[in-house]
Protein: ABC transporter permease
Amino acid sequence: MKLTFVLTKLARGALTLLLAVTFVFIVLRASGDPAQIMMSDEASPDAIARFRERWGLDRSYLEQYLTYLSAIAQGDFGLSFRDGRPALELVMERVPVTLLLGSAAFMITLVLGIPSGIFAALSRGKLVDQLTMSATIFGHSVPNFFLGIILILVFSMTLRWLPSSGTGTIWHLLMPAITLGTGAAATIARFTRSSVLDVLHQPFMRTAKAKGIPYDRRVLRHALPNAAIPVVTVVGMRIGGLIGGAVTIETVFAWPGVGLLLVNSVNQRDLAVVQAVVLLIALTMVVVNLCVDLAYGWLDPRIELHNKRAAKA
Structure:
């Protein structure tokens, strides 16, 4: 894999991060004055002015923006308005909990999505295929937050088998992970099925069959590796979807992760914390997409060659 290929992807990732930070910076400041929200209704105009001066909110937007970019370049993400602690420290305290939820949901996604998609493709038109496609339609149709509420009503409020909120045990993790992982599993199952079916009808598969290669070997050695690239694409996209979906799911289940911190910080206009969380999410998305692009180049070197020819044209 060429160094220029990697450097190009890194440059695009850096530009994406800059755009994300800029967008959040503008939206947060355009949505209201944090001083008015953080201070009590009885606060005097002098107290509000001192608050704005202390946190640099009395400066122009351009000056605040340049100061913020300069601070980020030095690893300083600012202080929380709420308790005065470093914003990055507050975010990193929540990261392990969110990683636990995301990892569990991702495992559920892979275990349910890829095998069911493969079996559906290999059993096209049969009962297994019909049941799988019906399940994927259900997974696409039901919003994650609605599924989470249904699970709480059934397994917490009615059956009283599982806790409805909090963390600490595997039983606390079970419902949030299932809620977050099932929608992504439906997407991956559909794309896996389509990709495998497309490969099964390629000429090289008919050639392998004509040569007398056993069916199992044709599927494992020829069909699945060639069907992997579209699946890798969807898996990478769904990782980002799991991160974004964690904001809603953590709120529904009161899971004390980064998503819940983001919601609370937005409500309180805690600018530094919100910006740190969004930057972390954007960085995660960039890293995931970079890994997917690098996996493309490894799985099929023709992709790198095609990109190079397109750049020359």
Summary: The two ends are 21 Å apart (CA to CA). The chain has 14 helices and no strands.
